[in-house]
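User: Structure tokens for both sequences below?

Assistant:
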Amino acid sequence: MSQKTHHSSYFLTLFMLLCTSVLLFSCSVVPVVISSDPDMQKLKLGETLFEQEHYKEAEKTFIAVLEAHIPINTANTAVYNLACTRIMQAKTLEDLSNALILLDTWRQTSQPIISVENPQMVITAQKKIAQIIEADVIARQLEDKKNKQIILQQSKMIETLQHQISALEAIDQELQEKKKPL
């Protein structure tokens, strides 16, 4: 199994695990209440930026929340939001993998009973995951097609060269026979 195939199957497995986990956890979502807590206000601001597709600004907001000394539940929400934001910014499978690892970190540390994470964020992120995986599959198919064309061209070239070598050997054989003394 090639390393790319191994990575793809790893990403797909991780993706499926995360989808299942998120679906299980998001069934008990409690809406975020408007709070006077500045960290909760920053989280809400980050979610708003996310919804407006200002992912860089949302990422900075979630990182700022994480860097503050905050309660574990608020930190878990910030990790979840940051993971979803990084998924949306992912350009490569490596970016996606790093974001999914962060999302898996959230899953491992989150409370299974009550959750304040916004499920719409991960739903939006899942669409992005599908786009990245689809783009990777298409790129690999194009690369495979290109490689097959190169192999076909080289095979034809080898056939031509073998034919030319056979013809030159025949000519050489004729010349050798003509040079022999009678």
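Moving on to the next sequence.
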Amino acid sequence: MRILGFEFRRILSDKLLWIFAAVSVLINFMLVFANAPDADRCIWLGENCGPVTEDSVAIFEKDCNSKLQNAQKRYTALYGGETDDIDVLYLRGCIGDENDYEVMILQMQMASHGRAVLDGNYHFALDTFAASRGSMFTFQVEDAHERIVEMNKNGETAQFSPFRFSNARETLYGMLLPAVVIETAIISVYIVLRSLEVEFAHGTASVVYCTRTGRRLNLIKTLSAVGVMTVLYAAISAASLTAYFILTRQGVSLSSYVAASVYPGQLPKSSMTELQYLAATIFVGYAVPVVMTLLSAAVGNYQSNSYFGLAVMGAVVGIMILFQRMCTGTMTLGNLILAGNPMALLLKFKDGKLLFRMGELFSYTPDCYSAPLFECAVAAAWLSAGMIILFFARRYFRRKDLW
């Protein structure tokens, strides 16, 4: 334990590590600041979002119709014609300022959405999803229909979620959390390779590793790296999320069901609030830097040059992304094999375009990423594979000549 504590402190004493961490947090702050919804819009949504009821929908419809009629009267008085085009009415100065225009658009969207929910016209289209199953996991189609029945019974869509009427959810799951995972993974690779290189760089490897106890030191270095990476992942996540919720004022969205926040093309597999989904996404995302740490440790055991190790890890990640690019998305064994690597927890390619998919984890989507327990299976499989690869790398390290 004393050696473990010493290695932990030695890693934390690396100034470059703290520079990387500070730059990561700064980048995340900039992402949030640049993509946060308008503050007035967030405040209005926070004050007006709630349950979808006949009364709440009627209020939005009444306000919209009243504002639209007044705007049309002004337009007729000024220009002598008639139009119901909201954009034209705004550009001709008949609605008010930009804030009035934004509120009117939100009221129209919420009234339309609420009426569709109340009338039973809010459907999760499953035709594309069913077609994507092919001959594999066809039972998921029936499961998806049962999930819709459960969702309607629980009233999961009978909510006005602020996430649905702004880009805040896209900022969180499409930018911020992927950035946290990628930054932590890069830092973890640096920590491990730099730590395993130290003895060789200082010419003390032949002395330190000449005994069995000494050769266990590189395992302790790996464990220390995992510990430091975990602390950094938690710290960077906490700092980034704090800035996000302060700037976007989306705390009220965390109590909403995921089904009320996403669009019909994405059907959550289970009944989760946004807070539960956020916690699950952070936990699953943590698997990516852990796997990168294990693979980096294996590379560091095979060779001692950290720059070469970085090149190897870059090639490994590049191959994983290439496999995601080759995956067509439909449910076939070949696509499952191509998609079954840690990068699938972060991204996918759709119509040749790279998309971060952390906002649609644990969901029925028309692609192979919605296979049963896909995220858990990928994380568990690669954590196991990483430990096996590290085991054989350590066997090689124990046998190689260090003199």
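User: Anything stand out in the second?

Assistant: The chain has two domains: 2-37+167-399, 39-162.
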